[in-house]
Amino acid sequence: MILEKIEQLLNEVKGISASNAGEIEALRLKYLSKKGEINALMADFRNVPADQKKEVGMKLNELKQTATERINALKEQFSQEDGLNDDVDLTRSPYPISLGTRHPLTIVTNEIIDIFSRMGFILADGPEVEDDLHVFTKMNFAADHPARDMQDTFFVEQNPNDVTKNIILRSHTSSVQARVMETTEPPIRVICPGRVYRNEAITARAHCFFHQVEGLYIDKNVSFTDLKQVLLTFAREMFGADTKIRLRPSYFPFTEPSAEMDISCHICGGKGCGFCKHTGWVEILGCGMVDPNVLEQCGIDSKVYSGYAFGMGVERVTNLKYQVSDLRMFSENDVRFLKEFESAN
Ligand SMILES: [Zn+2]
């Protein structure tokens, strides 16, 4: 009888589990306390016949030991888990995972692309290492134009017999326009964003590389009025609905007539301030009607088609928008500067 009881308790004890400290204590009371089941069996032990005492005693010890071990193991498990929980400080701020920001030039380029995309312009891209043919010749630059000079342009490879075969770092994104015109039947409506290079000393106001967005529209009966309206829409989208524009006559080899565009100073609203040198206007881009020579050079019949082109420096537009005083800050990778644009994304 007593052996059966011991065996039954032993099986029970081997399978015990608990999900909290209260349950462990209940198990301890049930098996190991003075009034527990094992002690009750101990009390019965003296009634066991002498010839069975050895066997029953051994079993009883095994039961007590097993119960003690199991309950201690459960206690250990819970104290370890408590220990783990103690290490978690729920009042601590989360790990400082800092989210990167877009570069201000990327932000502004995307904004420009967005505005012109909504007016039907599509993106065009081309190589930064270009030949003279696409950068200068097709853009109507005379063979002795100063831009072709080593003082102004970075040369990768020079061809002493034929300047048009020189390999250079493109000095404007107009080369992309040339490539689009070569391969596309009008109507053409593209914008070409990209990096350009010029052989300039690096100062607060000049750099050996900067970024441009150029636009080109070629179709039948395109007039200067179309150009002006598109640029006015751009200026208003970029700098606010009450922005005014003015066009001043200018000269570029690839457009005729050509103009520089100013926008009303968005800091003083045109009244005049330090930023606009008290004129109320700030310069933003160059534009004009595509020179018929350029169209012909790129295989487009200038008697059938006409078009306009414009080009702006992304750094310039960014400066107007965010008043970055030193051009070098754009390429210094100073995180403090870049963080300023966190909310502009
Ligand atoms: Zn102003």
TrEMBL record:
Locate the Aminoacyl-transfer RNA synthetases class-II family profile domain: which residues? Answer: 114-340
InterPro entries attached to this UniProt entry: aa-tRNA-synth_II (IPR006195), aa-tRNA-synth_II/BPL/LPL (IPR045864), Phe-tRNA-synth_IIc_asu (IPR004529), Phe-tRNA_ligase_II_N (IPR004188), Phe_tRNA_ligase_alpha1_bac (IPR022911), Phenylalanyl-tRNA_Synthase (IPR002319), tRNA-bd_arm (IPR010978)
Q: Which keywords describe this protein according to UniProt?
A: Aminoacyl-tRNA synthetase, ATP-binding, Cytoplasm, Ligase, Magnesium, Metal-binding, Nucleotide-binding, Protein biosynthesis
Q: Which Pfam families match?
A: Phe_tRNA-synt_N (PF02912), tRNA-synt_2d (PF01409)
Q: Which cofactor is essential here?
A: Mg(2+)
Chief place of localization:
cytoplasm
Report the GO terms under cellular component: cytoplasm
- List localization entries: Cytoplasm
Instruction: Look up the coiled coil feature and give its residue ranges.
Output: none
Q: Which reaction does it catalyse?
A: tRNA(Phe) + L-phenylalanine + ATP = L-phenylalanyl-tRNA(Phe) + AMP + diphosphate + H(+)
Question: What name goes with this protein?
Answer: Phenylalanine--tRNA ligase alpha subunit
Q: Which organism is it from?
A: Marseilla massiliensis
